[in-house]
Design brief:
It catalyses: RNA(n) + ATP = RNA(n)-3'-adenine ribonucleotide + diphosphate. The chain is of the alpha+beta class and 504 residues long. It has 16 helices and 7 strands. A hairpin with a 5-residue loop joins strand 3 and strand 4. The two termini are 39 Å apart.
Length: 504
C-alpha cells in the first residue's frame, strides 16, 4: 500500500523511477541554474571522520550580506526587497502591534523562495541570478487547460493571486474567520527572513557536509503558516536513509557544535533534542530586526524527507480551493487557544489538525476537496527526486466544487463531524484515500485513540495522543465548540479576540 520508506528522498533514482514520473520527462530550458545544480550533484558516501575534520579546519565565520541575483545585498538594518521585483515598503520602524493588525497585506505564499538548493563547488559562497521557472504543461485526468492554482516558486510570470484566492463572506461568522486569517497568516517578510537564515546556514553547513542540502519545510511553506509559526528545516546529507537513533544524532551533534561556536554571533540557544526524530532547536537573532522584538525559532532535522514531500502536497491543498486556508488557520488557532495543539504534551500536532480539516472537506456529501494523490499520481510520486518535488503542484488546476457552503457553515460542520459523526474507535483519517477507512491492525495503530494517516509513509501522525484523559479532553473541546458555534454563530465564543491577539 505504501512505498518502502527507505526509498524516499534518495536522488538520483534509477531510470525506472524517472520513467514512472512522466510529469517531468522534459525539463524546461530556462530553468534556474540553482535547480540544475541538483542534477549535477552526486552525493558521496558520508564519512564522520571527514566531517569532524572539516569542522575543525573550517575558518572562523564572518557574516557577509547575502545577494539574491541583481537585488542589493540584504542588510539587517534595512528593509527587505521583494524577490519578485516588486517594491516593498520598509518595515524597520513598524511596530509589531501595527503589523499584526494589517489585514490587507499581500499574500506571503506567492513569494516563496528557491528551496534548499545545493550549490556547486564554485558557487558555494555566492548565490546565482534568479531565473523564472516555467513548469512543463500538465493537465490532470482529461481536465481542460486551466490557470494553475498553486503559486510557483521563483516564477515572475504570473500575478499575485491574493485577491482571487479568498472567498467572499456572506455572513458574520464567515467574515470573522476571514478577518482572523488576514490578521494571523504568515506575511512575506516572515517568510523572507526564514529563507535568509536557511540560505546562510546552508552555506556554512556545506563546509562540513559539502553536498548537503537544507530545505525549509512545514507550515512556513505549506500555505497554513501564521506569524508565530516556527521555521522547520530538513538537512539532507546523503542519498540513503539515516538511522535517527544513531547516525542522525551524530550529524546533529556536529551541526550543534557549529552553531555553538563559529555561528554563535547570529545563532542563539542551540539545543540538541534527542527525541525519536532528533532535532536541533535554535533561534536566529539577526533576522529579528524585521519583526521588531520577535526572534525566529527553528527546528532542524536530518533526512526526514517525508516532510519535504508532504509540505508540497499540503501546499497544493491550500491553494486548490479558496476556503481551505482560512478554515485551517481558524482551527489551528482554536486548538492552540484550548491547549490541544501540542504533541509534546500528548495532544494534536498542527500537522494532524491540518490533515483532519482536509479529510473533513473530502468527506462531505458534496466534497470540497479531492484526493490529489489519486487524481495526480505523477505529481506526488513518492519516488520523485527531491529537487523536482516543488515544481509539480504548479501545474495542477483549481478544484471546482459544487458545494457552496460558507466558511462559517464549514467550521460548524467540522466540529460537528468530529464531535458526533466520526467513529474514533474503528476509523482512520486518510487524506490519501479522501475518506475514513478501517483502522489497520498494526502496532502503529493498536491502542491509539486517534489515527491520522500520513499521506506518504502511512504512519500515524496523531500517535502522541496515547492517554485516554487527553483524548477525552480533545473530544470534549470539539463537542463544546460545535454546540457554542451552532447556537451563537460567533467566533468569539470559542476563540476570544484577546486570546487571538496574544497568540498571533
Amino acid at each position: 500500500m505504501f512505498p518502502n520508506s527507505s526509498n524516499l528522498g534518495r536522488p538520483p533514482f534509477h531510470s525506472k523511477h524517472q520513467q514512472q514520473s512522466n510529469c517531468f520527462s522534459i525539463l524546461p530550458v530556462n530553468i534556474s541554474p540553482t535547480l540544475l545544480s541538483h542534477q549535477q550533484t552526486v552525493v558521496p558516501p558520508f564519512n564522520f571522520r571527514t566531517a569532524v575534520g572539516n569542522l575543525a579546519a573550517s575558518p572562523a565565520v564572518t557574516l557577509q550580506p547575502v545577494t539574491y541575483g541583481n537585488v542589493s545585498p540584504v542588510s539587517t538594518s534595512g528593509a527587505l526587497t521583494s524577490f519578485q521585483g516588486r517594491k516593498r515598503q520598509s518595515e524597520q520602524n513598524t511596530s509589531r502591534d501595527v503589523k499584526r493588525q494589517r489585514l490587507d497585506s499581500q499574500n506571503s505564499d506567492t513569494t516563496v523562495l528557491n528551496q534548499a538548493v545545493p550549490l556547486p563547488e564554485e558557487r558555494r559562497h555566492s548565490l546565482p541570478v534568479p531565473i523564472s521557472i516555467q513548469s512543463p504543461p500538465f493537465h490532470g485526468r482529461g481536465s481542460p487547460s486551466l490557470s494553475r492554482c498553486v503559486p510557483p516558486l521563483r516564477d515572475t510570470l504570473f500575478p499575485d493571486p491574493t485577491e482571487t484566492r479568498l472567498p467572499v463572506a456572506k455572513d458574520e461568522l464567515s467574515q470573522q474567520i476571514l478577518d482572523l486569517f488576514q490578521a494571523c497568516r504568515q506575511q512575506a517578510s516572515d517568510l523572507n527572513r526564514k529563507e535568509l537564515c536557511r540560505t546562510e546556514l546552508q552555506r556554512e553547513i556545506q563546509l562540513i557536509f559539502p553536498q548537503s542540502r537544507l530545505y525549509l519545510v512545514g507550515s512556513s511553506l505549506n500555505g497554513f503558516g501564521t506569524r508565530s509559526s516556527d521555521g522547520d528545516l530538513c538537512l539532507v546529507v546523503k542519498e540513503e536513509p539515516v538511522n535517527q537513533k544513531t547516525e542522525a544524532r551524530r550529524i546533529l551533534s556536529l551541526v550543534h557544535k557549529l552553531f555553538s561556536t563559529k555561528l554563535s554571533s547570529y545563532i542563539e540557544r542551540p539545543q540538541l533534542i534527542r527525541a525519536k526524530v532528533p532535532i536541533v532547536k535554535f533561534r536566529d537573532k539577526v533576522r529579528q530586526v524585521f519583526c521588531s522584538t520577535h526572534y525566529v525559532e527553528f527546528d532542524l532535522n536530518v533526512n526526514n524527507v517525508v516532510g519535504i514531500r508532504n509540505t508540497f502536497l499540503l501546499r497544493t491543498y491550500a491553494f486548490i480551493e479558496n476556503r481551505v486556508r482560512p478554515l485551517v488557520v481558524a482551527v489551528k488557532k482554536w486548538a492552540s487557544c484550548h491547549e490541544i495543539n501540542d504533541a509534546s504534551r500528548g495532544t494534536l500536532s498542527s500537522y494532524s489538525l491540518v490533515l483532519m480539516v482536509l479529510h473533513y472537506l473530502q468527506a462531505l456529501p458534496e466534497p470540497i476537496l479531492p484526493s490529489l494523490q489519486k487524481n495526480y499520481p505523477e505529481c506526488f510520486d513518492p519516488a520523485m527526486q527531491l529537487h523536482l518535488v516543488h515544481q509539480a503542484p504548479c501545474t495542477i488546476p483549481p478544484y471546482i466544487s459544487k458545494n457552496g457552503s460558507s466558511l462559517g457553515d464549514l467550521l460548524i460542520g467540522f466540529f460537528k463531524y468530529y464531535a458526533t459523526e466520526f467513529d474514533w474507535s474503528h476509523q482512520m483519517i486518510s487524506v490519501r484515500e479522501a475518506k475514513a477507512i478501517p483502522r489497520p491492525d498494526g502496532i502503529e495503530w493498536r491502542n491509539k485513540f486517534i489515527c491520522v494517516e500520513e499521506p506518504f509513509d502511512g504512519t500515524n501522525t496523531a500517535r502522541a495522543v496515547h492517554e485516554k484523559q487527553k483524548f477525552d479532553m480533545i473530544r470534549g473541546e470539539f463537542t463544546q465548540a460545535w454546540r457554542l458555534l451552532r447556537d451563537k454563530k460567533d467566533l468569539n465564543c470559542i476563540l476570544p479576540l484577546r486570546a487571538n491577539e496574544q497568540k498571533r
